[in-house]
Design goal:
There is one protein chain. By secondary structure, this protein is α/β, with parallel strands linked by helices. It is built from 14 helices and 26 strands. Strands 1-14-16-15-17-20-18-19 form an 8-stranded mixed beta sheet, sandwiched between helices. The protein is elongated and about 85 Å long.
Amino acid sequence: MRYREWRLGRETRGVLIASGLLAIGAPALCLGTREAAAQVPVARASDSPTAAPAATATYVSPAEARLRGDVAFLAADEQEGRAPGTKGIEASADHIAAVFKELGLKTAPGADGYFQTFTLTGQPRLGEPLDLAVKSSDGQTLKAVSRTDFSALAIGVNGVADAVPIVFAGYGITAKQDDLKLDYDDYAGFDVKDKAVLILRREPQQNDERSSFDGKKTTEFSVLRHKATNAFQHGAKIVLLVNDFASLGTDNDTLLSLGSAGSEVNSKLPFVQLTREFADKILKAAGEPSLTELEHQIDKDLKPRTRELKNVTLSAHVTIERPSVDTKNVIGVLEGSGPHANETIVVGGHYDHLGRGGLMSGSLAFLSRDIHNGADDNASGTAMVLEVARRLAARRDPLPRRVVFIAFSGEERGLLGSQYYVEHPLYKLASTVMMINFDMVGRLNDKNELTMIGTGTSPNSQGLVETLGKNAGLTIKTVSGMTDGFGGSDHQSFYAKSIPVLFAFTGIHSDYHRPSDDSDRINYAGMAKIADYMELILLDFARRPERPEFARLTAPKRPAQSASTSMSVTMGVMPDYADESKAGMKLSDVREGGPAAKAGIKGGDTITSIGGKPISTIYDYMESLGRYKPGDHVDVVVKRDGKDVTIKVDLGKPNAAPNH
């Protein structure tokens, strides 16, 4: 499941609800042999901290054996965390395709065998040229040595600065927050357009319990994302970052590695780090105090010490290569028979994960480079797709509708695989009647709960889900409202194309997006029960005489959130994560009933400005909306059909819950 805490987008953070499922079994569902079961380690109640007590501790069903085998393969260290571009994800794709072939599933027209290949941006690397020099008016040149005096950060882009002025802009912070009585702006009164900004890491008064920056706690204004967006929106040409003395001192003045602040582009300007020693040389050449002196002055009275550095200019070339990587959706087809045979049900789940983690991969293990095996997220969902495929393929009579099984890649990078499929469908979307998604279905809890998201996207789905659950002794938690369609996983791409969705989910846990999400923590007996239940739901949709109707959802009301932890308003938009243009933030969809939709913003529009501040990435969007509160109106400029359109958006009534 894609990390939705607005590190990559907060629009859908409310969907992460803990849950699980207990379901019924049926003789026709028990496929496999005793020999196959015997090859898999015996499942015991102690194998999973969340497992329900087993009736027979030493018995493992054939379904459990198959699920355990698939999860164990996909979540093994040998698969390297299944990050796109690795040998491990290729081996995983081959494993899934081999199962599809063994089951006799057909290949889809237009696919390369069982594969639908697409391209995404790979890991960044430093390229050439990479140089930086400062020239003073007396003809002296300070030439920085690459990887010794300076280095580039991957949160920035390639760029050239040619003899541009330099402005020391303190910590590069613009912060106004009423609850902290904070009003501080390093850019106030200074024009930095087309200039280099020299800024410090973190924030002022870090060791002062009385600081308006929430005492000794670190606020969101200290993060590099804020600094990058703030510099971009003030028109800077390039960012020059230096370590701050208060937290690092001179003994720890080391340069960050290229991807240590993240591998994704935050704002469309170059972002480099200088050593304090080289930065002090620049300040000295301009006749200014040292960094340490300037920091002490700011800490003393919490007033910016921004100044243009006279008689010095910066020239730099920054080159960051971002080679493309091919990855694959894996697709197997079970054809239907009868008058509805050309109607398609998609059963999917993503098989990619986070590799070895990293700040912008979505890992919640700070600075860990251990393999993130992703047993629950989402080896469990992939195994469920394979298990359901085995069951349906084993039926003697063909189903009335086609079922297309898809293991998506690129989900953790922004639902890229499912988005690629709906933009390049192998079966007509107009004839695709339902998408069922499995993402994190490996942690059935002892209350036998399962969250089913998307019941509101088709009339009567909720009744089916609840009735089958009640008859089977399940505790089903349904999620209705806007979260159904915008839920942080691959069903979202299909909902945006007006296709009904259902998303089975057993909940967030402490191992989520951490190296500890391993196969020994999966509740395989619980997964087998979920497979029993979901097969019944699938059979119902496949056999219905009429195709499921689609219902577009309206936004639910939620409690407003503190601006210190998240945005207090949203517009109700879904970014197009696959778009890599520099024109702004393209939208793939908007939520019906949300502020954007009410104002007339549409899917396909590209947001280029909010409240007069330029927007180039999702991070700029987040930063800009974070300045507003319910009751505000803001002018939003979108690019539509090649023309700029200004739209006034009402962000909701004061004291009313915003749309998420």
